[in-house]
Write a structure and sequence with these properties.
The chain is built from 11 helices and 14 strands. The chain is of the alpha+beta class. The chain has 3 domains: 47 residues, Uridine Diphospho-n-acetylenolpyruvylglucosamine Reductase, domain 2 (2-Layer Sandwich); 116 residues, Uridine Diphospho-n-acetylenolpyruvylglucosamine Reductase, domain 3, CATH 3.30.465.10; 107 residues, Enolase-like, domain 1, CATH 3.30.390.50. A hairpin with a 6-residue loop joins strand 13 and strand 14. Helix 9 packs antiparallel against helix 10 and helix 10 runs antiparallel to helix 11. The strands form 4 sheets. A 5-stranded antiparallel beta sheet has the order 4-5-10-6-7. The radius of gyration is 19 Å and the shape is globular. The N and C termini lie far apart (42 Å).
């Protein structure tokens, strides 16, 4: 690796000030699980890294609010998220998804904010957080702003963040009246990058769907909400006819891509099958359970 400057600010505000909106060679580093690999292979050669490990503890905490939602600091390690009693009781689809997210060594180091900001479309949590209606708080030179997780991803490894902005917090609204599920299809081990990830969150009244959120990832350039599928499911009774209509619409709606994990055509078929399976799994879960 080429030499670079390493700075370790004590506050998030100070960290933002050490970033450079005009210089792509200046980057923040939290867990560094992806960034260090990029540096070792020469894909990324930094001039300065802004370490976030010493900023305020509040950005590494999980807080359950009185209304049933969650506030998760962006520097919370994924393994902490996986083991949190509050997360398990309020949004158990998340720890369920984390069980096959890479391996425990990575989860012990990788942070939620870094996981999102890396914008690799094969990440497991972005589609699930989108389906659950999560929002992020972004810190920048002019202050903070909030936006849905949907608006974070701009393309393949691209986000809507400026180079001198940082994800500070992720908030998840109450999930008590929703049934959620995340499923992924891998071509190798269960914890490998998926060829397809499908997240479903349903608000139901018996077998009738009142509202539906369906998001796919890995097979597309960025996590993608399937609006046509959501329209079919919303207001419908969940039977085999509805499931097949949803699966067929998903296959048409999904703009899949070719890569080493399969052709675009193969992934469209995966989308059709796994959307049906994920909806069935969500229906079988208890309210808000994954």
């Amino acid at each position: 690796m080429t030499p670079f400057e390493l700075v370790e600010p004590r506050t998030l505000h100070e960290a933002v000030g050490l970033l450079d909106a005009e210089d792509p060679a200046v980057r923040p580093i939290a867990g560094g699980t992806a960034l260090m690999q990029m540096m070792k292979t020469g894909v990324f050669k930094p001039t300065r890294l802004v370490s976030l490990r010493a900023v305020e503890d509040k950005f590494s905490r999980i807080e359950a609010d009185t209304g049933g939602g969650l506030r998760i600091g962006a520097l919370t390690p994924l393994s902490v998220l996986e083991r949190s009693a509050d997360v398990r009781s309020r949004a158990p689809a998340l720890p369920g998804a984390l069980l096959t997210l890479s391996n425990v060594r990575v989860r012990n180091v990788a942070t939620l904010g870094g996981h999102l900001a890396h914008a690799d479309p094969h990440m497991d949590l972005p589609p699930l957080l989108m389906a659950m209606g999560a929002r992020i708080t972004v810190a920048g030179p002019a202050g903070s702003r909030t936006m849905p997780v949907d608006e974070l991803f701009a393309g393949y490894y691209e986000t809507s963040l400026a180079r001198n902005e940082l994800i500070a917090e992720v908030t998840i609204p109450p999930q008590a009246d929703r049934r959620s599920a995340y499923m992924k299809c891998t071509t190798r081990s269960a914890d490998d990058w998926p060829a397809l990830g499908v997240a479903v969150s349903l608000q139901t009244d018996g077998r009738t769907v009142k509202a539906a959120d369906v998001v796919i990832s890995a097979a597309t350039e960025k996590p993608t909400r399937l609006a046509a599928v959501q329209k079919i499911l919303s207001g419908a009774r969940l039977d085999q006819t509805t499931l097949h209509r949803a699966g067929d619409a998903a296959m048409v709606d999904a703009q899949t891509i070719d890569d080493v994990r399969g052709s675009a055509a193969y992934k469209r078929e995966l989308v059709r099958v796994y959307v049906m399976r994920a909806v069935q799994q969500a229906v079988g879960n208890g309210a808000g359970r994954g």
